[in-house]
């Protein structure tokens, strides 16, 4: 039988601390300047008062900052907040203790109120102060010894001793546990990773640099990409994402439309990385030099744009590593390097890397060095290709390594796999993640999926990036829905979540696939250069620039949490409320009702239900709404309001709610 | 920068293992013979197959039992089960590893199916077997070396080598991680406490032994209690719970109806424990001797009844500890012992114990010894009085100590405080808990509260005991609702959850309170002897015996989880489905629809909605239901069915669903 003394025995219980992810295994995510709210269940036996504090420490800080915990009877939680004012990984802890001194003061007042004799009570208080003095030192200890003496000194009478008991000075001096053993701490020190705002909120544009030349047939360059910045900045984009810019392998190079054999002149897929001209730390010579790349990054910054690079850890058979480090690949028993396979399918133009090879340490460091190389060239955002095909442990390690040196670097996980794996990548460090958005086209699917993303524990770590299309995904909805379909999906992507993107050609409503039933583009840019007239008739650039401006101007679009789907009386009309709370900068708060006709072919009209209770409005109240897309104002009344959306004219509304007349 | 090698790097991720409570801080609860289902999210990068196992170890076992994990694509979980066939605390762990050998076999079949050359593949397989051999020993290692040789031996041709590759023997020999480093384990070893069935399912009856004498005015004895066993057993009770049976203090003894001063002859409250005649390990001399107590326990067992004792850790000023261990109490600065207070209220007849006193170790052991004393006298169930006024750490310690020696001992927490504290007591070890049931009388409150108890994480550790009344709680609903109210609450208590209880007098529909607005009984047994005519006209013993028989015969009532509230078309009619799955002993499963008229004053009729989808029945299907309370059968059809309940005749139905004609 173990003795009572042999185990640590907490005086109180601290449990269910939030935010916490997987028992503290992973940090939760916030962005710079966020107020981090920490709360906990804390309780003990009996009626004595409890005191406690939140401790937190920013990256590189050695001292913890302290904040007293406040109690909220309903819902029986203790909480405190801190401002995440530095980038990087923060730590926080919660501790609490019984507070017999505060209990004594509180009881003393009740006893006096009931006219009870408090002679002995004053001695009890003095005893508490004496006990506290023992574990304090210096001037504080001396003050406590003096106070105890005074509280116990009957010769002083009652009044001055009561004054001392109630004094702010003594209260302050008695702060903290009476004896150190009475302090209890939550089981785990937790962490928060604080990233730049762009990790949460931004508009992305994906383009293939080689397609950006103005002269027909010429291979585009970094300089050509720069030429597009004025327009892309004007359209309101924040991030320009480039597929791999490295030399492209020639062995087993794929031809146009993914033909098994390339024809002379075929440029190959940028994801078949590496040739005699270099690997992941080289630029394709036809795009320019590394100096040209640097210039492009600088120019982008001048336009308020950031360049995101693709980080695709796979090699063409011509990659320099195949010669310098064949042991970093899967070497077969016949000495050859294993190409990518999903038996019986073969992908002979790609060699997967063996992340668990014997020389793993050098390999992983080499991968880290690649990131540091591009960070050295001004790249602070990486879109990581198929991270779920590389070890989770590798990503956790490499992202942590980068973040320690460069907490401003953002990683986007391009993973389409089962939810558990996608979520795991987000937990272990990816700043944001691709999603199933492209495949969610029905009202019910959109509601279910977006609700999962915006109101479950996922919100602590999974930041969705809603790409409306990608070079790999041209959804049937876009293939068949015409221009209206592109406008609808743009409106959804840009207003449902804070971060979204399009792949170039979307603005021109390109919708031809390589084959019936396929989601692959016809004449896909993955295998050839495609030049475009960016001012083609029917383009939807006006929608893009309007939506990006509306997104920037309305704080409700900057938050993932603040979404509520509304009841509509017709299924094809989707409506949702985005709200941001009242703040100093936005004293009225910011409430927007977005209404979308999901049917690109037909006009629909119905009543939508405004959740008046969430807006603090009465059932019959008149209020004005302004469609930020048109500037037109309407007067709405009460809960049910009429909308009519003809996709030939407008596919939706972004109604800002203006307060009562 | 840390190096990749300096950290442990798991090959795969194991997360969200269930059942797990507070990151493994507390065990979940099961009862003897339960099948414990363990499941987990397990995944890795890429397409390779995964294998894994559940390890579990019963109390006192040194070896882990192993069970292979099975994968379920939907919902993407791995799972295995074990039977909890011993009482006490079990441990279990989940581990998994990439399985390159099974992957190789699976790919080999695909390659062959596509007519590909597999010459090198066989060498690859041989290499895998060779690697595995290195971390195996003895005959197994030799068999693997031989198998590798054979797989690589081109002279044998393809067929015999394929046969070997696919053989069950080699599959078995290759079980487990290829190399030990590839094994990953879940972050925590988890635990399950396995208790007796009575911890989960039972009917309790509370009686004051001193009230059980047949002759008017005589103080009842243990022998008188024995006289009641035949009837209580016939009524179907399992547990007879006795308030404290110890000597009662005389200092500041309370009089009848809680009068501040006792009159001569007043017997005092059994909870004012301790006098010159002894403390918690003595019996009140008027009840008999300890030998009489032992005899009562034995007689109870003969009737299939168990005695539960009250464990109330507080002392009257006359308790022997006040003299032998004054330091176990709160000693004031004037040398007196502090009585119980809630300033400015005083409770001078009770001395609270100072569980954090300097002599804590001896005090806690003395409390443990009290439990062991009564366990030595055959008591295996303790109803613990007000545990939330004693340290949580004390309960966790003392229950664990008892459980280690006597895993068949059951603890009931009598705590009415805020949910967090009540839940914490259940987590740290109490087998079952009092609840707010007595105060939940409306349809909505019952639905909300019972749903919380039966379909949230609480079910892993909180076993509710629905007392319909207690010596402290005579709810207004019972005060004003007449006999029907008692029948209604009995029906609810006994069918909503597996464990319920009544305090004697309930069966006689005693409903008089000491004062308007009070929940205290008039002439409460807490302060005086109350003898009753157990066959008083209007008693509801027939309801009790029927319900207890129905509960025993129908497995659906033995489970907390299996409850679904049904839609009813009138609010005062509450209906719920209790279901238990098909088992060997119950090949049809066990489905019961309980319907209760919550209004004790008026007849109500309405349609109730049977959840056909849960029962696997069609919309228009005819089916028979039998009211187990009356034996009457009805034919119901489809979803909506009619009920009519006049509280003067019957307050509800317990309809067993008989399968289709």
Notes on the structure:
The structure is a homodimer of 661-residue chains. Helix content of chain A is 27%, strand content 23%. Chain A is α/β, with parallel strands linked by helices and 661 residues long. Chain A folds into four domains: 13-97 and 184-194, Immunoglobulin-like (Sandwich); 101-175, Up-down Bundle (Methane Monooxygenase Hydroxylase, Chain G, domain 1), CATH 1.20.58.80; 202-313 and 360-557, Alpha-Beta Barrel (TIM Barrel), CATH 3.20.20; 558-660, Golgi alpha-mannosidase II (Immunoglobulin-like, Sandwich). In chain A, the strands form seven sheets. Chain A has an eight-stranded parallel sheet. In chain A, strands 2, 4, 5, 8, 9 and 10 form a six-stranded mixed sheet that branches. A six-stranded antiparallel sheet of chain A has the order 23-24-25-30-27-28, with helices on one face. In chain A, helix 2 runs antiparallel to helix 3 (138-152). The first copy, chain A, is globular. Chain A starts with 12 loop residues before the first strand and ends with a strand. Chains A and B meet through strand 1, helix 1, helix 2, helix 9 and helix 10 of A and strand 1, helix 1, helix 2, helix 9 and helix 10 of B.
